[in-house]
Design a protein that fits this description.
The chain is of the alpha/beta class. The protein is 45% helix and 14% strand. The protein has five helices and three strands. The chain has a three-stranded parallel sheet, sandwiched between helices. Strand 2, helix 4 and strand 3 form a beta-alpha-beta unit. Helix 1 runs parallel beside helix 2. The mean pLDDT is 96.
Length: 96
């Protein structure tokens, strides 16, 4: 678990490729928000790390929030309160 966006990026960079299957990215984190953290992960040189599925998990539930997450390179967007069947569908789709 990363407590800040900067920490999330560093954890991915420092881990061996394949260590993480998916990233559930909070949008509102200190030092670097989830959008910027996702952009930095997508910019990593190692394609296996750069292409880890990333899903926004946030209280921001508007269409523009979903669009911003996708534009930042995320693969999905889950808004609170979480719909468990939707969450399971999203995870199943991205982990195939």
């Amino acid at each position: 678990i990363a407590n800040a966006g900067t920490e999330a990026v560093e954890m991915v960079k420092a881990s061996p490729a394949g260590h993480y299957d998916i990233i559930l990215m909070d949008i509102q984190m200190p030092r670097m928000d989830g959008y910027e953290a996702a952009r930095r992960i997508r910019a990593l040189e190692d394609p296996e790390k750069a292409n880890i599925p990333i899903v926004a998990v946030t209280a921001n539930a508007f269409d523009e929030d979903r669009r911003e997450a996708l534009e930042a390179g995320m693969d999905g967007h889950l808004a609170k309160p979480y719909d468990i069947p939707q969450m399971m569908d999203t995870l199943s789709r991205l982990l195939k």
